Amino acid sequence: MASSYPPAQLSLPAQSAAPAVVERQEGFELPAHTSSVAKARARLRSRLQHWGFPEDLGHTAQLVISEFVTNAVLHTDTVHIGCRIHLNGERLRIEVRDEGTQSCAPQLRSALPDDVHGRGLQLVGALAQRWGVSAHGGRFGRIVWAELGMTSTL
């Protein structure tokens, strides 16, 4: 003979309002020199670790900032490079600002199999949820930016 029991009653804690969106940002400036690529990566890595970001997102973010700073150093006539990282909820935005003229805006290239260079922005496009270029304001310069989701990985 089977017994019948009333359904179990689960006691759940009272639901509070939706958690507040965590918003954090940091900006820094570097000289337009090849050594600044490693400095930008290290600064970004340190900040993301401090914010408790997953390590795989940190690797992706470092690749993105490396590409943007390298392009600013090698392909623009800038003296200073500004970097900004902005966390807003589930999205990390990386921005690199240069002082270059509009005639040297970043361009996607089609690299041949044996080419050593020319794939960086393609990698950024594959890893980022969105990326783009916008005018910096004023007479010259631009901001190259990318947005990564918390699930972005290498």
From TrEMBL:
Any one Gene Ontology MF annotation carried by this entry is: ATP binding
Keywords, comma-separated and alphabetical: ATP-binding, Kinase, Nucleotide-binding, Serine/threonine-protein kinase, Transferase
Q: Which InterPro entries is this protein grouped with?
A: Anti-sigma-factor_SerPK, HATPase_C_sf, HATPase_dom
What range(s) does the Histidine kinase/HSP90-like ATPase domain occupy? 31-133
Q: Which domain of life is it from?
A: Bacteria
* Listed Pfam families: HATPase_c_2 (PF13581)
Gene3D superfamilies in alphabetical order: Histidine kinase-like ATPase, C-terminal domain
Coiled-coil spans in chain: none
Its name, as the record gives it, is: ATP-binding protein
